[in-house]
Amino acid sequence: MQQSALRSKQIIAAVIGNALEWYDFVVYGFLTVIISRLFFPAQNEVTSLLLTMATFGVGFFMRPVGGIVIGMVADRKGRKVALQLIIFLMTLAIAMIAFAPTYAAIGAAAPLLIVLARLLQGFATGGEFASATSFLVESAPVNRRGFYGSLQMVGQSVAALAGAISGMLITQNLTAQQIDDWGWRLPFIFGLLIGPVGLYIRRHLEETEAFVEVRDAGLKKLSLLTILRTHTRGVLASFGLVLSGTIMYYVVLIYMPTYAKTQLHIPLTDAFIAQVAALLCLATLTPVFGALSDRIGRRPVMMAASIAYFVLPYPLFAWLQADPCLFRLAVMQIILCSAVAVGFGAISTALAEQFPARVRSTGLAMAYNFAVMLFGGFAQLIVTWLIGVTGSPLAPAFYVMFGAVAGMGATLLLVERHREEILH
Q1: What's residue 363's pLDDT?
Q2: CA–CA distance, 148 with 144 (Å, rounded to integer)
Q3: Nearest-10 Cα torsion for 139, 369, 411, 340
């Protein structure tokens, strides 16, 4: 009973800290349209948006660096140390954005401040997925690893939900001038709670048994090249699965408010309402599919997700384009977020099971962050460019379908370990 209570406390602490961490990262994506006017003024709206999206993507350049550095800290010094470091760095970055003067106040220094903050955010967030996932999966009983690992993605979903709710509240209750003057800062200021709350939560974590066993065994530390050479299949499978999931996530969730406003001329308020409904669905269904993966395995669940990513986007985007409105946007978002929930339910644990504990955080960080940097961080930029080049507002669907094909191939490489004891 005491062990069960301790495990529950560990999981709650990790998930809450993870949700607070990701809130600050995603809220920037939701407020892209507003930030573009204030920090990246240009001759036309498209150029301004592209500059803002590029800055969103710049943070992802630091994610592989942060992921590898913090992943090595997690594998050598412990998951707890890494998770506390991440919270501290993210607090500093979000404060820089929350209180940054606009372009009208300090000129070119304003976008530079935003870029620096995004780089620091990228470094911190790069270590979050691998460290939190390793912690959750290693804390779980063998027959519930899928469910426990899915809670990492629930944390991300709750973070996105909080960001969408904050965007909805400011667009509903403030005038356009109030939003531009000070309202846009409110979601970021709220995000500063990650400092005292996140640090307090993560100070009370206990190291996982898997890490303690590896540390006490005094095993020789492996270099990055050695990890790549000895775990090539795991790295490739992880990279492909993350590529597929991250394209779906950033197109369907992070980019959608901007797409609805600029391409479909749906008010931002309506876009955020649809987003909230879809994210509630995502957060609810993700652990269901995590638990399902404990029963039938990670591969069947991940393959079902990849097929859904391929089949659903085009007809739904076309249906929405035919009659842009809140109802159709909400229905599309709910259906696509249900598909995301299938993949999110199994992916964290599936990736963690590809690596033994001694290199789990580092191996996860490499595969995850390079895929997210290349295909997620610049998803908004790529999709906006594709729409401009093709002249078709359906271009986002083709990008998602490309990711789905990569996900199918990666699923075939996946080593199924859902019934094995976690590798130490």
Answers
A1: 85
A2: 6
A3: 80
pTM value?
0.80
Q: What stretches in the chain show pLDDT beneath 50?
A: 1
Cβ pair 3, 194 in contact under 8 A = no
Overall size of the chain counted in residues: 424
- Kindly state the tokens that stand for 151: 């809670």
Q: How far apart are CA 362 and CA 343, in angstroms?
A: 22
Q: What is the DSSP letter of 142?
A: G
31 Cβ neighbours under 8 A, 6+ residues apart: 167, 184, 187
The per-residue pLDDT for 51 is 67
Q: Which of 224, 211, 223, 219 is nearest to 81 (CA)?
A: 211
**pLDDT (0 to 100) of residue 54:** 65
Compute how many other C-beta atoms are within 10 angstroms of the C-beta atom of residue 256. 26
Residues 55 and 115: beta-carbon distance below 8 Å: yes
Q: What is the pLDDT of residue 410?
A: 95
CB contact set of 261 (below 8 Å; sequence gap of 6+) = 33, 267, 268, 271
Task: Tell me what pLDDT residue 320 has.
Answer: 92
Q: For residue 94, give both structure tokens.
A: 């979000």
Reference 120, options 149, 94, 152, 151; nearest CA is: 94
Cα atoms found within 13 Å of the Cα of residue 164, Cβ hemisphere only: 24
* pLDDT digit string, tens, across residues 249-290: 888 877 887 788 888 888 878 888 888 888 889 989 999 999
How many angstroms separate the CA atoms of 34 and 184, rounded?
7
- Dihedral class, residue 267 (left if φ above 0, else alpha if ψ from -120 to 50, else beta): beta
C-alpha torsion sign, points 60, 64, 67, 70: negative
Amino acid at 142: V
Q: CA 211, CA 219: separation in Å to the nearest integer?
A: 11
Identify each DSSP E strand in 113-158 by its residue range: none
Nearest-angstrom CA–CA distance, 280 and 26: 16
Structure tokens at 28: 């920037």
